[in-house]
Every structure is written in structure tokens, then in C-alpha cells.
Specification:
The N and C termini lie far apart (53 Å). The protein has a domain of 89 residues: Cytochrome Bc1 Complex, Chain D, domain 2. By secondary structure, the chain is mostly helical. 25% of the residues are buried. The longest helix is centred in the N-terminal third of the chain and has 22 residues. The protein is built from five helices and no strands.
Length: 151
């Protein structure tokens, strides 16, 4: 009898641990939440995110900032901080590289985006941006994200 109970413990405990890892509650990164924030207390058009700016940008990110300012900032706000009621901040956990990869930015610019995380309506395609332009924008946004702890 002792031998059969012991074999259940030896086999059962590791299997139970594996089940908890595979089917247990989802883990989130410390300090970041994928939940869309409540913006009801933010004035319409005001920034949604408080964005820390890197001391310096790479050459590609500097170009990206210029392109972003001309093609994206009217909706996504200065430094990609979003504008309440208009467009979301791109410096947000939702847009981290593992959830929205670089290709998502190209697809959004080329095809637009159906609203799915935020309630600001659909994003139309952005006319006149080349793939290189979007690559520069991505470099800029990713450097802003890293400065703000989003990797």
C-alpha cells in the first residue's frame, strides 16, 4: 500500500503543478496592465498617457518622430500619448511588441484598423506613408515604449 500511495505522490504532484502552470490564472507583467484604462475623468482631446521621453533618440527614431508628427500626432497625440476621445496612446502595454508586432503598425497605416481595444472608432488608412516611413515610426514608438518600461 505504501508503495502505491508514494507513486501517486511522485507522479501526481508534478502533474498538478504542470496543470496549474498551463491552465492557471494568466500572469501579467509587473506594473503594466493590458486592460484599457478608464478615460472618463480625462478631458476630451487631452493626453491619455504620461509619456517619459528618452534623453536621446536613434537616428531612425528621430526620422520617425518627424514622420509621426506629420502623419500620426493629429490623432495619436504628441509623443504618442493618445488623445481622449480621438485615438489611443501607442505608449501603452496593449501595443507592446509581443502583442502588436511591428507588422501591425504597417498594416494599420496601410489598411486601417477596426476598433477592438479602445472605443474611439475605427482608424482609417493613412494615405501617403511608405513602408520605410512606417519603419521609422515604429523605431520612434518602440524607443518611447522602452523608455516607459514597455518592452
Amino acid at each position: 500500500m505504501f508503495k502505491s500511495i508514494w507513486s501517486y505522490v511522485v507522479i501526481g504532484v508534478p502533474l498538478a503543478g504542470l496543470a496549474v502552470l498551463l491552465f492557471g490564472p494568466a500572469q501579467t507583467s509587473v506594473g503594466h496592465d493590458m486592460t484599457t484604462p478608464d478615460t472618463s475623468a480625462i478631458v476630451q482631446g487631452d493626453a491619455i498617457a504620461n509619456v517619459a521621453i528618452p534623453a536621446t533618440f536613434s537616428e531612425n527614431a528621430q526620422i520617425g518622430k518627424n514622420v509621426f508628427d506629420g502623419a500620426c500626432a493629429a490623432c495619436h497625440g504628441e509623443n504618442a500619448a493618445g488623445q481622449n476621445g480621438i485615438a489611443p496612446p501607442l505608449v501603452h502595454k496593449i501595443y507592446e511588441p509581443s502583442h502588436h508586432g511591428d507588422q501591425a503598425f504597417w498594416s494599420a497605416a496601410q489598411n486601417g484598423v477596426q476598433s477592438h481595444h479602445w472605443n474611439f472608432g475605427n482608424m482609417p488608412p493613412v494615405e501617403g506613408l511608405t513602408k520605410s516611413d512606417v519603419n521609422y515610426i515604429v523605431a520612434y514608438v518602440r524607443e518611447l515604449q522602452r523608455e516607459n518600461g514597455i518592452n
